[in-house]
Amino acid sequence: MIKTYIFDKINLYDEICRKEESELKKGTINIPEEEIKMQYDYMHKISILNQEFYHKNGRMPTARVRNFGCQMNEHDAEKLSGMLLEMGYSLVQSDEDKASAADLIIFNTCCVRENAEEKVFGHLGALKAAKRENPDMIIAVCGCMTEQSHVVDEIRRKYKNVDLVFGTQNQHTFPELLLDCMENKKHVYNTEHLDGRVAEGVPVKRADSIKAWVTIMYGCNNFCSYCIVPYVRGRERSRSSSDILQEIKTLEAQGYKEITLLGQNVNSYGLDKEDELNFAGLLDLICRETSIPRIRFMTSHPKDLSDELIDVMASNPQICRQLHLPVQSGSTRLLGKMNRKYSAEKYMEIIDKVRSKIPDIAFSTDIIVGFPGETDEDFEQTLDLVKKVRYDMAFTFIYSKRKGTPAAEWENQVPSEVVKERFERLLALQNGIDREINETYMGKKVEVLVDGYSRTNAERFTGRTQGNKIVNFVGDRHCIGEIVTVEIDEVQTWSLGGKLI
Ligand code: SAH
Ligand code: SF4
Ligand code: F3S
Question: Can you give the pTM of this predicted structure?
Fold first, then answer.
């Protein structure tokens, strides 16, 4: 009875959100420098222990960070890697669940869908034998999964081979927690929350030398009814525009050609701080103060994409002609139940408005298939919307029940055979659109930022257009990291091929 009531009264989520918004203090601040300095002291202490390891074993200890999540998760891994290098570890890439894989293995987890969690538990299970063989090996689990108490309980009960558990919000205290674990030879489980504070000055080892992630805000306040992220990442916390600008200027000086600004909803950047720029203002500042050739950002929530933002995008050629605008569903009825706070019509208006001001924009999106209560009609509306928008790229997901979210409690879950069939139809539709859009590139000249050698053909290079299309071409190694012009003479569903001009 109660469950049906919750399902029908979608306003409940508005209430949740109002509560969350009212709890939000306009006062996000940086963690005091002394606290960050303390972490550097812990890193130094670990580096001394690691020197001792070197004298005993004739090599520095190895560490491996394994990622399971989104771009934000990958960027978190870059910070973990920065700290590990500072502590004297040598970073390795091994994917094996063996005793010889690394002296320290960190699982940087994701919990947005069930399969991401299952993968991690699979690896932890497989490492039980490795730990018996090499009891000195340290296994750590961090990231979004560990922000759920039921997961930490399960690790405590079933995975005693795990030595250290920490969260996303206290990631900057990793050195302190690791030292505790090493010195006291004990299990450490610590997922403390970080309300209203952001950590600056943590070392970063970037995985790429051409493109860089820059987190501009942490957390999410939106509470979409299917989504676990607001529960595990906490409330929205923006970094100061001056810290962000400083980081980007450093990246520019290091020769980076592209930056992607990250946040769960970048459109609400700055709202949690006194006297801070909004997102459009931040983008404008970055464009005025730096000459980074390419700027991207994700994710933009359609409910608060402003006209000001569209104008800033239209008037700054540094900002890539690409917009990731997750729609989730084409049914206004379902969007209400998802607590997305826009209708399908409103979404189409935004698409049309952006296209009228930036005609060459490439849209991408996220879509969930099989959200509880999705009818054939709802799904047809999603297909219709996809046909109308003609996305350059769509990330499609099968709905996954997430414990603790409202939608997981609803009884009208869609049977998996129906979901699979719908998912295949959506995929086939989008693949056709991808191909048709790619065909329009035949014979055109496009600007490509070259990432490196093509993975499938060692004689070719690969890069991306502003609209994020993959382009493979024959070139020479001097073009890596440069923006070059390529004439397209080959079209595939997910990539283009061409000649360097
Ligand atoms: N903050 C971003 C999305 C972050 S999660 C935004 O609002 O757009 C990335 C995508 O995962 C979401 O856009 C959604 O499509 C998908 N997702 C989130 N929770 C999910 C769930 N429970 N089941 C399936 N897909 C989900
Ligand atoms: Fe999840 Fe994105 Fe919604 Fe936040 S805005 S609750 S991250 S889907
Ligand atoms: Fe990203 Fe997964 Fe966390 S999508 S924010 S790593 S739950």
Answer: 0.94
Q: Give the chain's count of helices (H) and strands (E).
A: 15, 21
Can you tell me which atom of ligand 2 is nearest the CA of 112? 1
* Ligand 2 mutation target, pool 14, 144, 229, 366, most atoms within 8 A of CB: 229
Q: Which residues are near ligand 1 (CB < 6 Å)?
A: 112-113, 226-227, 229, 264-265, 299, 301, 326, 328, 366, 368, 397, 399-400, 402
Mean pLDDT (whole number) for 351-370: 98
Residue 19 to residues 23, 43, 178, 340, Cα–Cα distance (Å): 6, 39, 36, 16
Distance CA 463, CA 468 (A): 9
Mean pLDDT, rounded, for 238-242? 98
**pLDDT tens column, 402-456:** 999 999 999 999 999 999 999 999 999 999 999 999 999 999 999 999 999 988 8
Residue nearest to atom 5 of ligand 3 (CA): 229
Question: Residue 384 C-alpha to ligand 3 middle, in angstroms?
Answer: 29
CA contacts within 13 A on the Cβ side of 83: 29
First to last CA, the chain: 67
* 36 membership: H or E segment, kind and range: helix 33-57
Dist. CA 138 → ligand 2 center (Å): 33
**pLDDT value of residue 32:** 95
pLDDT score, position 456 = 81
CA–centroid distance, 104 to ligand 1, in Å, is 31
